[in-house]
UniProtKB/TrEMBL annotation:
It comes from Galendromus occidentalis. GO terms for cellular component: cytoplasm. It is an enzyme of class 6 (ligase). Transmembrane segments: none annotated. Its main location: cytoplasm. Its EC number is 6.1.1.2. It is found in: Cytoplasm. This is Tryptophan--tRNA ligase, cytoplasmic.
Amino acid sequence: MSSGVEGDVAKMELGDEQLVTPWNVVANSNTGIDYDKLIVQFGSQKIGTELIDRFEKLTGRKAHHFIRRGIFFSHREFEKILDRYEQKKPFYLYTGRGPSSDALHVGHLIPFIFTKWLQEVFNVPLVIQLTDDEKFLWKDLTVEKTLAMAKENIKDIIACGFDPDKTFIFSDFQFLGQCPEFYRNVARIQRQVTFNQVKGIFGFGGSDCIGKIAFPAIQAAPALSNSFPFIFGEQKDVACLIPCGIDQDPFFRMTRDVAPKLGHPKPCLLHSVFFPALQGIQTKMSASDPNSSIFLTDTDKQIKSKVNKYAFSGGGATVEEHKEKGGNCDVDVSFQYLRFFLEDDDALEKIRKDYTSGELLTGYLKKDLIELLQKMVKTHQTARATVTDEVIAKFTSPRSLKF
Ligand code: TRP
């Protein structure tokens, strides 16, 4: 690559069929995003059985169903994290969210459910970045509004059950002014990346505001351990593992290019697929279209009517046709949601078999899904109700973490 950054293809079109950038995900074919193709284009690695076996042997834990089912499907140098775990060398987790709505939808929970599990398995510190500045720069929102959304989103994140002794959550607008060491790393990163490079990686053009062009350094900085002196002191060699949606990879390709130049290890990554919209697997859920998503604030009734009305069916057009030809689990959104959230492998496999053979009708699949989502959302709402200002203050105050 001319810019020297691993794979300058964040903004790319694959045979005009799919477009994946941090700000836009579109698949035009009706089979959805081609993830194998994306791995090739991005230059990442597939999470294979060998890696999963090694993980299970080292940690003594069965791999999470997100890994077993290919929901976290790609990585960059995850084996290096396993090496460190084996050698008892320190590392930490880093993930984040761009607060673009007050309410999260169930798809937004994927990285957080998974990161919480990783934190438990590895027993390591975790930092969570809310990029309110990013949403301010990209959307038609005021600073005040993005700050307020970050605070609401933080409650939802805390409700996922992170360990307060090992988790630091921050919003950029709050934290950058509090931590000179963080900003110094932002500037160090900015000096290493040219405009031509970010143009290549992110597709920025001459009419993009300069805030956008400078922003990637702010998402990169949390991957350098000395950005958090209250956790890691001046240590530069604490490795970083980032679970994220594959659309965020461009930020971290850039980070992996810069980190060694600044004397830090390259961050390692675990990538997830996108969570499909109710309307079909061609696009991901969007918080801006209320009918494309199940929100964590939805009532039982709303969940029921949205799934029944909008969840795209892979079943036959008529009962007769369905019984004869069977359903297509690959495109059936209800089945796909069960794949994400039904933890019981045997139950899921039975549904897959019976739906594929035509024995099980879409209505039954939807009924199972509705019950599961209602339970999940209720559990979340109960947990969220306990997140007081005091609890938020604990998670967001810069402090040392136990590990
Ligand atoms: N840019 C991400 C978003 O819009 C938010 C984010 C910041 C993030 N840091 C991250 C996501 C690290 C994953 C990992 O959602």
